Amino acid sequence: MTDTRIEARQPGPFREAIATQVRVLSALILREARTRFGRSRLGYLWAIGEPVVYVMTFTAAFTLLRTLPALGNSIAEFLLTGILPYQVFSNIVQRASTAIPANRALLTFPIVKNMDTIMARIALEIATSLLAFLILFGLLGFFGITRMPDDLLGFLAGIGALMLLGTGIGVVAAVGTVVNSTFATVFPWIMRFTFFISGPFFILDQLSNELADKIAWNPVVHGIEWVRTAYFPVYASSHLDRGYILFIGLAALALGLALERMARKHLALE
Amino acid sequence: MIVFENVTKQYSLKRGRTTILDDATFAFPRGKSMAILGINGAGKSTMIRMIAGTEPPDRGRIRRNGLRVSWPLGFSGGFHGSLSGRQNIRFASRIYDSDPRQVEAFVEDFSELGKHLDAPVRTYSSGMRARLAFGLSMAIDFDVYLVDEITAVGDARFKSKCQNAFADRHDVSDVLMVSHSADTVKKYCDSGCILHDGEMQFFETLEEAVDVYNALLKSLQ
Question: What distance in Å separates residue B132's CA from the closest CA in chain A?
């Protein structure tokens, strides 16, 4: 049975599939932005406010403890170059990890797949956190707390690496939290713990070699070292391994995609 | 046409497994609106979800051959409660590559929601939701409409409106409707099949299908 009406509508299955993918993703991102920021502008404000609160709290604490910054002129500057990049990473992971349950209703539309909702969230989060980051950095630069990074390209590359890592781990987390309840309980605690061993408060070279070697297993720390070596010209990290964070990021992404494929039947039945 | 190739699908319940399809190969031909009849528990809803693509088969392939297949109508789960009806409409028309303005105009007229269309969907009654959902699916051009049991949605006037909408598209779109009641499908379908014991049995006319189905019901009682 041939049906010319249908044939005529198809510009080739591959191009059609790509076009559909682009349409679905952009519609999802719009919808996500609308539901997240639509009702009030507080959502936008919080994207900037949250890291500010963190940095202020820790700056106050470290100042009280009379700690000197490991790098740079002020504790605030040192913490900012660690906490902000960390937040970019962790916000992506956090938003992604709840993408599936939050968008369950969307699966009524067969054209929308679970991976689309995860990717839409990640894309929106990358855009939001990048924007918040730039605004905040610019604002603080105006007050003289921060300055232009010494190696701007390296600085952005380090943040890009953290985004890649966040995307990979985010996809794993998104699928993991749905298929395994133990993972769902344990994962947020692991994330909270990694905050302290990812380097917002220290640089690897100030630790003992033994400890630094252990902490260097954590891929996040390389992202922050990457950013800091680019920001502070005096710092040449002896532990920084750019290939490692990129490799772990890509490997996590591959693992996440594979997990989603394997769990697809399970996800559909949820 | 939509083709099932060696499809096996089982459903796990607390006690044991039910087989919905067992290595079944068949096709829903274009140009026919078909009722898929089946007793409760035969797997009708799973069947419609498999056709839609929201649920994968255990084994085998389902090919839609480029046909635009609707989401299963009859329930309105796809709406976001905090977005307005209009925003939800725009979202759906975007993902299905339809002109948002045309879709909006159609739904506005069809659903008769008036100013509620700009209120968040969570404020809607279930009847209003159903009207929105139904209007939306009619506004987007699908080749095949999947209907999961048109039940008591809306009053008689709205029901006849739905029937007319389907009749209007009879020449270009087909309907696949699952039901456990032979009466409801008569208004929408011209042929039928029966899903029973892991097999699909096709019939030339709806009457034939309904007769066999009624006999099956009787034998099970």
Answer: 14
